[in-house]
Amino acid sequence: MFVILYCATKDFLCHTKLYQIWEASKHFYNRLSLVNASPHGAQSMSQRQATPSESPIKWLLEKENPPVRYFTLRDILGRGETDSEMKEARAAIATYKVFEKMLSKLKPKGYWEDPDSPYLPKYKSTYWQIMILGQLGMDKSHERVQRACEFVLSLQLDEGGFSAYTRKTALTEYDWMRSRAVLKEKLPPDSKSWAQSVVIEHEYSCLTGNVCAALLRMGYAKDARLKKALNWLVKIQNRDGGWLCPHWKAHVRDKHGCFYGTICPLEAFSEVPEETRTPEMRQAIAKGAEFLLMHRLYKADHHGFKVINRHWLKFSFPWFYGYSVLRGLSVLTKLGYTKDERLKDAFELLLQKRRPDGTWLLENAPNGRMQANIETIGKPSKWITLNALRVLKRLHETSNEQLKHVLAKA
Question: Does a structural domain hold residue 161?
Answer without folding.
Answer: no
